[in-house]
Amino acid sequence: MKEHTPELPICRTERFISEYKVPPKDAPALVDDRATADLLDHAAEAGGDKATLAKHFLSFWSRRANERGQTVAGLGVPAGHLAELATLQASRKINATAAAQVADALLGRRDAAGATTPSPAKLAEELGLPAKPGRGRDRGVGERGAGEEREGGTRRHFEPEEAAGVARFLVGQ
After folding, report:
1. Residues 6+ apart with CB under 8 A from 74
2. Closest Cα to residue 72, out of 27, 114, 40?
3. Is residue 74 exposed (0-12), middle (13-18) or buried (19+ Cβ within 10 Å)?
4. What angle do CA 86, 142, 101 make, to 5 degrees?
5. Helix (H, G, I), strand (E, B) or coil at 152
6. Model confidence band, residue 98 (pLDDT cutoffs 50, 70, 90)
7. How many domains does the chain have?
8. Phi then psi for 72, rounded to 5 degrees?
9. For residues 40 and 54, is the Cβ–Cβ distance under 8 A?
10. What is the C-alpha to C-alpha distance for residues 114 and 13, in angstroms, rounded to an integer?
11. Euclidean distance between CA atoms 18 and 20, whole angstroms
């Protein structure tokens, strides 16, 4: 009988805090809707990074659901897609901004049956969003630090004086 009894909200909240590294003040937002909490668990079971999944659920997935007057589960994004998107970010193949863009694309791309298609990795590629490695920072395409410039698809580093000039120019904008 215990295996058929749903997890109580208080127990689930405590588990989300410990397993998903959710701040205690945010955990109830994930537990309030049972279908959304179940979806989060299913996405983790599908291989998604738990901490990244929780951040996604609390940020852009909640925002998109609120804009549509739905729950996160009501958005209809499959657990496998949620897991894949979280894994792309956790493995630093895309950054958080790119993950939100892929989420928007997922919601905008539905087949005749209403299922989301294609996969997050394919969408990221189509959108030109794979992250480029960047000196320990999580930067994606189009995100450059002061002192960097693209030349013919390669990264060129400015000399310190040039970088200072670029920084002054950008601050003056």
Report:
1. 35, 65, 68
2. 40
3. middle
4. 35
5. coil
6. very high
7. 2
8. -60, -40
9. yes
10. 31
11. 6
Same domain membership, residue 106 and residue 30 = yes
Choose among 91, 162, 159, 158: nearest CA to 121: 91
Compute the distance between CA of residue 120 and CA of residue 110 in angstroms, rounded to an integer.
Answer: 13
Amino acid sitting at position 65: A
| Same-domain pairing of 154 and 100 | no
Please check the confidence at residue 94 and state whether its pLDDT lies above 70: yes
Residues 82 and 156 both lie in one domain: no
Of 39-53, 95-109, 122-136, 157-171, the range with the highest mean pLDDT is 39-53
Residue with tokens 């792309």: 88
Q: Which residue has the tokens 């920072």?
A: 137
| Nearest residue to 52 via CA among 9, 92, 10 | 92
* Residues 91 and 148 placed together within one structural domain of the fold: no
Q: Is the pLDDT of residue 170 over 50?
A: yes
Which stretch of DSSP H or E encloses residue 150? strand 148-151
What's the rounded Cα separation, in Å, for the pair 132 and 93? 8
What residue numbers bound the domain in which 158 lies? 143-173
Which H or E run includes 143?
Answer: none
Tell me: pLDDT of 167 over 90: no
> Would you state the structure tokens that stand for residue 94, as one six-digit string?
């895309």
Predicted model pTM:
0.70
